[in-house]
């Protein structure tokens, strides 16, 4: 038998409130945490309802914060942000709202800076391999295919 802590309903509520207050969370992260606490289905539903009513849990706020953070800090493109939000079971409406948080001119400016910086870092003498490395890097980070290939040809010509 494993030594799993058994939580009362109130203890679990307080722990989840702290969990959500520390950082924005989505429903799937909260559900995973509740699953790890070995609570009954009724208790889980009551806790999620409590978190929603007291504004600890808000998917739209989470998705906007997620998109801003991943773009500003990790320099992810919209494709990667959308993929990650879908993985977290965020609705299409909330994904659309989240993408509105990213200013289009700032988006393109960040893309140009990131591409030019990466281009100077790649020391590959073979131009084809250099193009591939650069395209792979930008696509992995979630930038749109048309932007990536246009920029790669621009920088390598």
From TrEMBL:
Pfam family of the protein (one): RecX_HTH2
Keywords noted in UniProt: Cytoplasm
Main subcellular location: cytoplasm
Residue stretches making up the RecX second three-helical domain: 58-99
Top-level taxon of the source organism: Bacteria
Subcellular localization(s) per the UniProt record: Cytoplasm
TM ranges: none
InterPro entries registered for this protein in UniProt: RecX_HTH_2nd, RecX_HTH_3rd, Regulatory_RecX, WH-like_DNA-bd_sf
Coiled coil: none
Domain called RecX third three-helical: residue spans: 106-149
Family label: Belongs to the RecX family.
UniProt cross-references to PANTHER family, sorted A to Z: REGULATORY PROTEIN RECX FAMILY PROTEIN
UniProt name for this protein: Regulatory protein RecX
Organism: Aureibaculum flavum
Species classification: Bacteria, Pseudomonadati, Bacteroidota, Flavobacteriia, Flavobacteriales
